[in-house]
Design goal:
Strand order of the largest sheet: 1-2
Order of helices and strands: HEHHEH
Number of domains: 1
Strand content: 5-15%
Radius of gyration: 18 Å
Oligomer: single chain
Shape: globular
Distance between the termini: 22 Å
Largest sheet: 2 strands, antiparallel
Length: 158
């Protein structure tokens, strides 16, 4: 699929990408520099996740960041080859947040996590990038499930 995207649209995508990356890294830096807050249900505490969600795949060690880089490169090619303009913003949010987590792996040896839910049950410690990835994926799924049929995808014989 070939799309004729104008320069303004690419600038918009770049601004979203850079904003996600900078804001996430800025917040993580606050925790790396010692900020901490304890609450009844939510605590803000620094931890370094050497795996992915719930510390899965931490046994991959240094290889995990290279696997994630390969996945994000694949996602980038997929975004610009197959996605429609309306899916670009949530996909760029996922990409920016994913790259921010990979930056952590290079700078700190693991992803900087800091939001710890501990009311009624212990939940995984997470960060803004994790939330943005979840939001972006749900946004893409919603757009996919409620997509407007495109005349190019219909029966060419009709």
């Amino acid at each position: 699929m070939s799309m004729n995207l104008n320069l303004q649209f690419y600038i918009k995508l770049f601004v979203v990408f850079i904003s996600v990356l900078i804001v996430d890294q800025y917040i993580k830096n606050i925790f790396v520099n010692g900020f901490e807050a304890q609450g009844k249900c939510i605590s803000l505490v620094l931890t370094f996740n050497r795996g992915v969600a719930f510390s899965m795949f931490s046994w991959l060690g240094e290889n995990l960041k290279w696997i994630q880089i390969a996945l994000l490169i694949s996602l980038t090619f997929y975004i610009f080859k197959y996605m429609t303009e309306r899916n670009y913003i949530p996909a760029i949010i996922v990409l920016g947040a994913g790259i921010s987590n990979i930056v952590d792996r290079f700078l700190h040896g693991g992803v900087v996590d800091y939001v710890y839910w501990h009311c009624w049950f212990d939940f995984a410690i997470f960060n803004l990038a994790d939330v943005l990835i979840d939001i972006g994926v749900v946004w893409i799924l919603i757009l996919s499930f409620f997509s407007i049929p495109n005349e190019n995808h219909g029966n060419k014989n009709s």
